[in-house]
Design brief:
The complex is a heterodimer.
Chain A (H helix, E strand, L loop, with lengths): L1 H20 L4 E6 L9 H16 L3 E6 L6 H12 L4 E4 L5 H10 L4 E5 L8 E6 L1 H15 L4 E6 L4 H17 L4 E6 L6 H13 L4 E4 L5 H9 L3 E4 L12 E7 L2 H13 L6 E4 L6 E4 L7 H15 L10 E2 L5 E3 L7 H5 L15
Parallel strand pairs in A: 1-2, 1-3, 3-4, 4-5, 5-11, 6-7, 6-8, 8-9, 9-10
Antiparallel strand pairs in A: 10-12, 13-14
Chain B lengths: L1 E5 L5 H25 L4 H9 L1 H4 L3 H27 L7 H18 L8 H27 L3 H21 L35 H19 L1 H11 L1 H6 L4 H25 L13 H11 L4 H25 L3 H23 E5 L6
Antiparallel strand pairs in B: 1-2
Helix pairs in contact in B: 1-2, 1-14, 2-13, 4-8, 4-9, 4-11, 4-12, 4-13, 5-6, 5-7, 5-11, 5-12, 6-7, 6-11, 8-9, 8-11, 8-13, 12-13
Classes of the chains: A alpha/beta, B mainly alpha.
């Protein structure tokens, strides 16, 4: 036990020393779950990194490691960055949660920012985006665009973030098209083009003519393009190379303003542990251009929906909403609280199938 | 004109030299690749091989080599026994997963009880889980003559589904706000496979891997069973005459490799990883196949190969963050290693001779 403390403090001292040596530059590390060229999730985080470089120029140095498995490998990569003098480290996947906390304990002077998790500490912040607001817009367009009334949904993992997206999309599709039906496939991956393409193909074969995805590659877009008459939406990134069809719109995660602000805070010494959950209003979630494949009136409605959320006038989870089992969740006019949303592990009424247990 | 001529006897010198030549060739061609990517090749190769061992932060990386290498060695040792006898267990990844599920499950069943016997029970449960999963292809092969390569490989995907299922259901952390993944065994002392000496990287999995190396060496060189394993691989007909029971050998080899893979999974989940999660497995079971061959299916060779593989992983990560090398380049670099090994392996059984082109 004593030896641990000794080693930890030795590591700390070294970390500090090298940190001090390179003090003119603030060093910011990024740990990515996929390759920077995934065209989706990691691609957008990397854009955020580049934005930090552009904003601060010589005053900042950024490093990144891509395709890091969630677990002990992530812990090693973070430790390595901290040892080499990183002042701030962004860990950009849910599965990095425990490793981030472990490493943060050993390096109390390094600031950590963990995306989409819930464990914070003195030097660990969490941040995420209200993707479900974007899903509401998607659901609206999807409900209007489908002719077969079957919407396919490629889920990654059955975690609250993904379930929230499914519920939000379903509620808003259902609102404009009462006959709509969702078919959900769980891919159990964030990034695996082969699996994602398979999932998309299966959904198309089952009659889906709109596909929503919560995975990061453009493989489902390619599968839809091949099928010819299937509508898709860009996920995490604009994926505009598939516009105007099959990709008719997208949810874009814009991390740049947040990354710049947090880096600035470290530079100024004002960084504090925080729990940030921003949406369309703050600009962390953006809606990619709605293409001309969408009828003008639908586009107008979708933009109005977006504007209402940006103004804070509308919450995608506004009652009356029942849970899948028929029990009441939100009363008329009531909006969901963040706690329930953060841990959402149930479907809303009308969705078929069970959340994998 | 160059011709290949089969050697009357496999060359002993080449069988020892090929791994070294392969590593050198990988350095040369890997360096070339890095140069094309616009990085200083000497610096890149240096970072990968030197930095983890002797660099500024080697005090952290050296123990990490043990952590990364131990599961590879443990699994590869088990696989090598079967491979020598021509029994191909390709599904160690699945057995690794099942070992982790069984081991962690056994530990979590006692939560929050504190008792000295919990960890030993987890060890047994982990080995049992891996053994059980390997017994499926073994039994099917013995009983129905199915191909163990296909069955064991396909069972990896079944195991992955089981892993997802328990992460979301049976073993899900009740205090995890609905997120998938088990309780963290690192914060449950009785079940935690902690470092034996803090900061050394030495956990029970490393110790077990070293014991496995010694055990396997003794088995192959000093024991009748080891002789039978070698004989079956090298001369199946002779083995039959010597009275080797093939069914028993299949059950033994697959069972043992499954149990060792299961142990590796159990030590990983209770130690470095801590959590049963959907993404728990990161390919140790597959990489171990490379390690087994890189080590010439020899226990000591496997030990060295496991270390080398761990080195390229850790050095590769350092090269990524320090030099901005893409992850894919590191993977190509690792792939080259196996490629050159197989290529130069040819020289063990063949020799290259310059020959005049003859008219038929």
């Amino acid at each position: 036990m004593k030896f641990t403390t000794l080693l930890a403090s030795a590591a700390m001292a070294l970390g500090l020393a090298s940190g001090a040596m390179a003090d003119e530059k603030t060093k910011v590390g990024f740990v990515y779950v996929g390759p920077v060229g995934d065209g989706g999730w990691t691609y957008e985080h990397n854009k955020g990194r580049l934005a930090v470089e552009e904003e601060f120029g010589d005053k900042v140095e950024t490093v990144f490691v891509e395709s890091v498995p969630e677990g002990p490998d992530a812990e090693r990569v973070m430790t390595q960055m901290a040892l080499e003098g990183a002042d701030l480290i962004f860990t950009t996947s849910f599965g990095y949660m425990d490793p981030t906390i472990n490493v943060a304990k050993k390096f109390p002077n390094v600031k950590f920012e963990h995306a989409t998790g819930y464990k914070t500490a003195e030097n660990v912040s969490v941040y995420s985006a209200r993707f479900y607001e974007g899903r509401a817009v998607q659901g609206h367009i999807a409900g209007k665009m489908t002719k077969s009334n079957i919407i396919g949904y490629i889920g990654s993992y059955p975690i609250p973030e993904v379930i929230r997206g499914i519920n939000s999309a379903y509620l808003h599709a259902k609102a404009v098209n009462p006959d709509v039906e969702f078919k959900i496939i769980w891919a159990y991956t964030w990034f695996d083009p082969a699996k994602e393409a398979d999932a998309a193909t299966v959904l198309i074969e089952q009659g889906a003519d709109v596909i929503l995805q919560h995975t990061d590659s453009t493989a489902p877009q390619a599968a839809a393009q091949e099928a010819g008459n299937v509508v898709t939406f860009g996920q995490a990134s604009d994926m505009s190379e598939y516009a105007p069809f099959p990709r008719v719109s997208s949810i874009i995660d814009d991390w740049a303003p947040y990354y710049i602000a947090r880096t600035k805070a470290v530079m100024d010494g004002t960084w504090e542990s925080a729990n940030t959950w921003d949406g369309i209003r703050e600009g962390m979630v953006a809606i990619g251009e709605i293409s001309d494949a969408v009828p003008a009136d639908v586009k107008e409605e979708a933009l109005a929906l977006k504007a209402a959320m940006a103004a804070g006038e509308y919450h995608p989870f506004t009652g009356p909403i029942k849970k899948q089992d028929g029990s009441d969740w939100l009363a008329d006019g009531e909006t969901a609280d963040d706690g329930t949303l953060a841990g959402m592990n149930f479907y809303v009424e009308g969705l078929e199938g069970e959340i994998p247990q | 004109m160059i011709v290949l001529e089969k050697r009357p006897q496999p060359s002993k010198a080449w069988s020892y030299a090929t791994p070294l030549v392969a590593v050198l060739a990988t350095m040369v061609f890997g360096g070339l690749l890095f140069a094309i990517l616009g990085k200083n090749p000497v610096e890149a190769i240096g970072t990968i091989f030197w930095e983890p061992l002797f660099g500024e932060f080697a005090f952290y990386y050296r123990p990490q080599l043990l952590v990364k290498g131990a599961p590879l060695v443990l699994i590869a040792i088990g696989l090598s026994l079967g491979f020598r006898a021509g029994i191909w267990n390709i599904g160690a990844e699945g057995q690794y997963i099942m070992g982790a599920i069984f081991g962690a499950g056994a530990g979590l069943a006692f939560y929050p009880l504190d008792a000295f016997y919990i960890f030993p029970i987890m060890v047994i449960a982990g080995a049992f889980g891996g053994w059980l999963w390997a017994m499926i292809p073994a039994f099917l092969k013995v009983r129905f003559g199915t191909n163990e390569i296909l069955v064991s490989l396909m069972l990896v995907y079944v195991a992955e589904q089981m892993l997802a299922s328990v992460s979301l259901g049976l073993l899900k952390n009740p205090e995890g706000f609905g997120f998938p993944g088990s309780r963290n065994l690192q914060s449950y002392d009785s079940a935690h496979n902690a470092e034996l000496i803090a900061g050394s990287g030495m956990h029970w999995g490393v110790v077990t891997a070293l014991i496995a190396v010694i055990f396997s060496y003794v088995l192959l060189n000093r024991h009748m069973l080891g002789f039978h394993i070698r004989l079956t691989g090298e001369a199946p007909r002779a083995a039959k005459f010597a009275g080797v029971n093939p069914a028993r050998l299949i059950l033994f080899c697959l069972g043992l490799s499954g149990a060792l893979a299961g142990l590796a999974g159990m030590f990983e989940v209770s130690g470095p990883s801590g959590v049963v999660s959907i993404d728990f497995n990161v390919g140790y079971g597959f990489t171990a196949i490379i390690v087994a061959f890189l080590g010439r299916l020899h226990p000591v060779g496997i030990l060295l190969a496991g270390g080398l593989m761990a080195l390229t992983y850790i050095g590769g990560e350092i090269a990524q963050s320090q030099l901005g090398l893409p992850a894919a380049a590191i993977q190509v670099f690792q792939g080259m290693l196996l490629f050159f090994l197989l290529a130069f392996d040819l020289l063990t059984n063949y020799r290259i001779r310059a020959a005049r082109s003859e008219v038929a």
